[in-house]
Amino acid sequence: MDAVTARGKRRSGAGPAFRADRERPRHSFLELPATAEAVPRARQRTRSVLGEWRLEVIAETAELLVSELVTNAVKASDGLPSSIGTPPVRLLLAAGHHCALVQVWDASSHMPAVPSVPDPLDAEHGRGLLLVETLSAGYGVYRSAGIGKVVWCVVETPRLGHHAVCLRDVARPYERPGFQGRYQS
Asked: Which of 21, 52, 170, 179 has its CA 20 to 30 A from that of 27?
C-alpha cells in the first residue's frame, strides 16, 4: 500500500532516498495477488522505489526483470491449494549504493531452471530466466523457510567492479541453504 506524506504527496512507502548509515540497505516489500494485475503493479513499484533511491539508471532493466520473475511466480502459484484461495506473490527490493537486489517469493516448491537448450524464437514462453541470466549481475533460487521459494537477481549500475560491494551492501542470497544460481565476480 502506498504511503502519503504530510503534504499529501504519494510515495511508495519505501523510505528515504538516502541514509547516513552506509551499512544498512534500503528495502521495499509488496505483497500481490497471484493474478495478471501483479505484474504491472510490481513494475510500477520497482520504478517508483528505484527513483526514490536515486537508482533510475537501472530502473528499466530492473522493471523488465521484475516483470519476468513476477510473471513466473504468478504462473507457479496457479492452482496451488490454499485455505484463502491462490497464495500471493511477494516482491522484495533492496538496494546498496550501486545495485538493487530483486527477490520474488511464491508458494510453489517447484524450483525453476534455465533451459539448457533455448526454446525456438517463436515460442510464447521459455526465455524468461535466460533473460534474467543475461541482464543481471547474478541470479538464483532458494527454498524459503516454511513453504515456497525465492527467485532473486541483482541489477547493477554500469560501474564496473562493484559486485562484491553490492552484495555486501544489500544481502548475500547465494549463501543461503539450497542456493542454486550464479554470481559474476
From this structure: 179
C-alpha cell at 122: 517463436
**CA 151, 152, 154: angle at the middle one, nearest 5?**
165
Measured CA to CA, the distance from residue 62 to residue 136 in angstroms comes to 9
Cross-strand bridge partners of residue 10: 4
State pLDDT tens for residues 143-162: 888 889 999 999 988 864 55
Return d(Cα 42, Cα 89) in angstroms, integer.
10
Q: How far apart are CA 159 and CA 157, in angstroms?
A: 5
pLDDT value for 71: 95
pTM of the model: 0.73
Positive or negative torsion for Cα 176, 49, 125, 132: negative
